[in-house]
Amino acid sequence: MKANITEEYYSSRVEFIQNQQLTKGSLVFSNYLINKYSLFFRDAIAVTANDALELTQGFNLVGIYEIHLMNIWLRMTSDFISSLIVQMVLFTCLTLCLVLVFHLIFVEFLITTTLTSNYEMFRRMYENLIPEFVINKEKIIKAKLIKEGFMIE
Predict the structure, then answer these.
(1) Is 123 among the domain residues?
(2) Which of 49, 21, 25, 15 is closest to 36 using CA atoms?
(3) 115: pLDDT strictly greater than 60
């Protein structure tokens, strides 16, 4: 007799075999099956084909239940990890952009401040210096005075 392996079949077998024990967890269900069939394990009662089928299906259900729980856990964990990866990538990109912006602002501030202060310094120096044509005119006048004898070198 080959069993039909469908979800409805397993649902009906769960209700029949486990007496609502699987909803409390697979360990409780396994203990329920072991306690129910412990006499068979001790050779106190003869095992019938129905009992062996029921016990086998019960442990198959525990395996399916645990695989289902592991798949749920795997999906939830992978979703969580992928969301963390996305968050970390976004955070890294945001941090890089902010560092670039602050660096550009800081460097721009330093460059403009340095250029402005250098420009002001050279402008003051130029304003405070005597222009060259005045110096040349002074030299010409001094040379003429020395030539005429009004001034001694």
Answers:
(1) yes
(2) 21
(3) yes
What is the structure's pLDDT at 120? 85
Residue 20 has a pLDDT of 55
Q: Write down how long the chain is.
A: 153
Q: Which domain holds residue 68?
A: 7-148
Residue 133 belongs to some domain of the structure: yes
Residue 108 in 3-state DSSP?
A: helix
Q: Tokens in use for 12?
A: 């009906």
Alpha-carbon distances, residue 1 vs 16, 30, 78 (angstroms): 18, 25, 40
One-character DSSP codes across 18-40: HTT-GGG-HHHHHHHHHHHTHHH
Q: Is the pLDDT of residue 2 over 70?
A: no
